[in-house]
Amino acid sequence: MSERAPAVERWLAWRYLATRQREGFVSFIAIFSLIGVALGVATLIVVLSVMGGFRQQLLGRIIGMNGHVVITAPGGMLQATAELLAKLRETPGVHAVRPALERQALVAANSLTRGTVLRGVRTDDLLTRDIVTKNIVHGELGAFGTRSGVVMGERLRQALNVSAGDKVTLVTHRLNENGTIAPRYSDYEVLASFMTRRYEFDGALVFVPLEMLQEDLEYGHNAVTSIDLELADPAAAPRVAPELRRSLGRDDLKISDWLGLNARFVGALQVERVMMFIILTLIVVVAAMNVVASFTMLVRVKRGSIAILRTMGATPQTIVRAFFLAAAAVGLVGTAVGTVLGLLICANMPSIGRLLATITGASGGGNAEVDFITSMPVRVQAVEVGTIIAVAILLSLAAAAYPAWRSTRVEPVEGLRYE
Hints:
This protein is of the alpha+beta class. 56% of the residues lie in helices and 19% in strands. It is built from 17 helices and twelve strands. The strands form two sheets. Strands 3-4-9-6-8-7 form a six-stranded mixed β-barrel. β3 and β4 form a beta hairpin. α1 crosses α13. It is elongated, with a radius of gyration of 32 Å.
């Protein structure tokens, strides 16, 4: 409570909160109003933090395998010359430049065949891609680029029933001079496999050394299908992409940022986040309405006391501030308790997720897709928590305003008539 409030107002507010005897039911409702505010705030913090954690991991897996800014050519192929790559590296905010060559193909082994996406990358580019290097589950990356070897998704490796050191055949195609299509066969060794927990990567993606893939497909040394730019700040991609268009001044290049490439997915996540915030805020609104109801009842119960205070010289402003402080204290204390409770739950969410998975029998048991859900990723953002606290305080103060105003409507004569 504010130190500027006179001591008598603080004392009256405390007396109204600690009401006993026949007014005990009102105090009982006020306590449950406080609990309701606390649970509403805690629920908002936990749910939005968990949604933020899932969003961060999902977007991290999408843009972690691709670039924050992607440069392609309308014709499908572009020349990644040394001059172009050097100019891209000099762009402010660009952390890494990764040319890539992608082709659809078939991969065959043990009389099994699967469709796949071949991605030719430089050795250094693969070894610095955390989403791959930190998720190797079979074999080693050390020999990549030194011999004809590939790194593939773990689901694809399991589907082909191969292990590190086994041979696989990559089947691509080429267009003959007479217009017919001829298959092209290349044998590679399986070096390692990765598990990103996204099926389109784990079940269909194969990394091949860039120079080897260019040689197999009979492309030039600079021929690639895209150039991926990794930025120091992924959120800056919508700003960097237009700057690159202006600085390069090339109409034969298409420059896209990751937000534009995944606009529907990112938009759906954002809409879900906003709607969840609005829906869960209703919990705090209901608790605030309980504050209004309980303290409006308290005003009616305390009519005699208010009348006596008025006859003793208390001003209407004193009565208003006393009731306002009492009602606001319920909301403010509930907000503080809810914030602490929500942050504690978020801090222990991985353990809570494992406990719930064990109790419900939803443990992944090594299944990557299920483990992703039961791991309960959490991302607590100060801006979100601050917004929740601000909304809860605003609702609490708004709820305190009406009972305080009602206290001014009590006339001393009417209040003392039945006392």
